[in-house]
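In keeping with the milestone schedule agreed at the kick-off meeting, the structural modelling team has produced records for the first pair of proteins. Each record is given below as a sequence line and a structure-token line. The laboratory manager (R.T.) confirmed that both were archived under the project's standard naming scheme.
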Amino acid sequence: MTFNIFHPDGEDYVSMARKDAEEAGFESLRTAEEVKGALDQSGLIVVFVNSICGCAGGIARPAGKAWLQTTRDVKAYTVFAGQDKEATETARAYFTGYPPSSPSFAVLRDGEMIGMVERLEIEGASPEEVTKKLTQLTS
């Protein structure tokens, strides 16, 4: 079950958050099958676990957007915690060694976990600090 929380202008926050991540360059994965198809590929993959919390909108999404503008040869995906539950659970199964965290960025190469920028590293940080952490993990 999903829920919608509406912004005063009438658009729901979930749609706004999803659109923000997609416009930044993250491809939405909404089913378990889409997640498996995307994360079983070779190469460098980053998965942004999106949410509607303040640190997602104020820090994580801006950091992801800035990072994507400076990187190449990466496949960037997003799942939405609390909304696309099956897709999120399937993605988290790939994030071995890390507890569920949203927002977060998981970095994989050829299907293997390299590292993660977890919520505890996002909350209270600046978008620039998170962008730097992503750059370090993907270099």
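The second protein of the pair:
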Amino acid sequence: MKRVGALLTVLAACSTPQAPIGDWRVAGGEPGNTRYSALDQINRGNVTQLQVAWIYHTGDMPPGGRSEIQATP
């Protein structure tokens, strides 16, 4: 009986609903962390035409302008 319970637990964990294409609900795009996106609006043919859409200044950069940010995109 314990095996049946364990099997049902594993099956329930594997049957999570899939996120819509383009929706990154977890870091890395999906639980396997593949960092793959099926979106195709930006490609090799138009990437050079991208422009900055917005800039956010946090106000925490020290005088002299030397700062860094470390993040996982």
